[in-house]
Give the backbone structure.
Amino acid sequence: MNLINFQAAAAVSEPEVTEEQLVEKDEALEKRWKIIAHDDPVTTMEFVVRVMVQVFKKPVVFAEAIMWQVHNEGMSVVDVLPKPEAELRVRKATLAARLEGFPFRFTLEPE
């Protein structure tokens, strides 16, 4: 019969958890939100691609595909992220659009 060495077991501490790991765990459990880009008659295709690359970190080929879907279908899901991250990206993209004089618009929907 194997006996458990309780003193040795007690000496083993649980691994330390950093605040960053807790935040990552919370985000993993948090509901994710779809970021949807909407077409308008003013925002240029080039600007849409630039925002997809710079704000949403999409490779150019995916950024162009999103741009064409927005143009042809009126909207496209850009990404699906935890709500705080989705809101941050939408704020950055919207600010960039307004600074360039474009009405480019995004909405968020729960996944």
User: Anything to note?
Assistant: The first strand starts at residue 32 and ends at 38. The domain at 30-110 is CATH 3.30.1390.10 (Ribosomal Protein L30; Chain: A,).
